[in-house]
Amino acid sequence: MHRRVTTAALGATLAAVLAVSACSSKSTDSDSSSSGSASAGSGLTISALAQIDTAGKEQPKASDAEALDPSSPSGQKCDPATIAMAGALTGADAALGINIVDGAQLAVDQHNKANPDCKITLKRFDTEGDPQKATQVAPTITNDDSIIGLIGPAFSGETKATGGIFNQAGLVSVTASATNPTLTDNGWKTFYRGLANDDIQGPAVAKYLTGTKGKKKVCVIKDDTDYGAGLEKAVTSALGSAADAGCSGDVKKGERDFSAIISKVTAAQPDAVFYAGYYAEAAPLAQQLKSADPNILFVSGDGANDPQFTAQAGDAAKGALLSCPCGPAPDKFASDYKAAFNQPPGVYSVEAYDIATIMMKGIEEGNNTRPKLLEYISKYNGTGLARKYSWTPKGELTTSLIWVYEVK
Fold it and tell me: How far is CA 109 from CA 63, 82, 86, 366, in A?
C-alpha cells in the first residue's frame, strides 16, 4: 500500500511515532483474559462485549473444550515439514502481522514439544502489508518446495495481488485476517478464509448500532485500501437510512490530519462515526474526533481492533466500539501466549493458532505435500479455540459470527 504523508501531517506523524516509542508494545504489566486484551501501555483494555449475527442479535459463545489442541501428543511420526506466514511484520500496521505470526508460532512450538517425531517449521515472510511488496515476496514462498501450507496473506490488498500466484503453485493459503468479500470470487482453488468476511461483519455491526445501541445517524469513513472499501460498502448498505451520505468521507493511508472530514462530521451532528480502516489512522482520527465532539461514539472494525489503537489514541479511545470476526482469547491460550512472547495476544492471534494447528494435524496424518494438504483443508470439519472450521467450495466458512468489543 502506498503511503502519502502531507506536509501538514508530518508533525503529527512524528508525534505519533514518539508516543508509540514511549509506550512499548511489549507491555508486561497488564493481563489478557477471555474478555479482552490489554493495550500496550495505555491502561485501557479491549474487552469482548457481545457475539452477534448479521441481524445484530447477540448469540452465545461456543465452548472451546473440544478445540483441537497442538500440545496433545499424537504418537504420529512424519518427515519434517514447513508452513509459512506472510504479512506485515514491519511498518505502520506491523502489530497485526506480529499477532498472527506469534499465534502460529505458539501452536508450532507446542506441537513440536509434544510430538518430537513430527517436527514442523514456521517460516515468516514480511510483506509490510504492501500489495506491491507482497508480489515480490510471493514467488520466494512458492519456489521454496519445503513450504506446503501458508497462513496468510494478512491484508486484503496483498491477498488480492498474490492469490493467483499461490493458486498457480497449488499452495493452500488460509488467511487469519483478510476480510474483503470479493477475495473468494477470483476462482482460486487454494484460498480459504479463517474468519467471517466483511459482508458478514458489516451488516452485523450496522444492525447492532441501529438496533441494540439505538443510533439514528452514522457517518461512515473509509481509508483507501481494499479492506476499507469492502467494509465501508457493507456497513453503509446495512445502515440504510441511518448512514448520512453528507458526512461520509475518505482518508489516505499515512494521513494524520483529519480536520477536513471531522468538520463535515461535527456539522452533521451524528450519533456515531464508523471508520473502515486500520489502527494507524484510526487512532489519530479518534483523538481528533474526541477533541471536536466528545459525545460522538467512535466505532471501527477489525483493522483497528488492536492494542496499538488504544496505545496510540490514549484516553480518546475509551468507550469506542470495535467489531471483529476474530474471537477473544481463552484464558489458557492468553496465559501461554504471554509466557511465550511477554505480551498479551492481539487480534487474529487465536485464528492463526487455530489455522496452524489444523495444518499440522493434516501433516501428522500424512498430508505432507501441497496437493494432499490442500485436499485436507478443503474437507476439514472441526472445532478450534475461536470457532468451528469448515469451508464452502469457494473458501468461505460455512458458519460465521462477529464479536463486538468495547474499549474500557
Answer: 24, 13, 18, 20
**Percentage of the chain surpassing pLDDT 70?**
90
Q: Rounded to whole angstroms, how far apart are CA atoms 183 and 164?
A: 11
Cα torsion 76, 82, 87, 89 to 10°: value is 100
Residue with cell 477489525: 302
Sign, Cα dihedral of 55, 58, 59, 64: positive
pTM: 0.83
Cross-strand partners of 50: 404
Strand order in the sheet with 81-87: 120-126, 81-87, 147-151, 172-175, 191-193
Convert the pLDDT of each residue in 126-179 to its tens digit.
Answer: 999 999 999 999 999 999 999 999 999 999 999 999 999 999 999 999 999 999
Which of 204, 200, 154 lies closest to 49 in space, CA to CA?
204
Backbone angles phi, psi at 298, to 5 degrees: -95, 125
Question: Closest Cα partner for 141 from 169, 164, 121, 120?
Answer: 169
The x, y and z cell numbers of residue 203, run together, are: 451488516
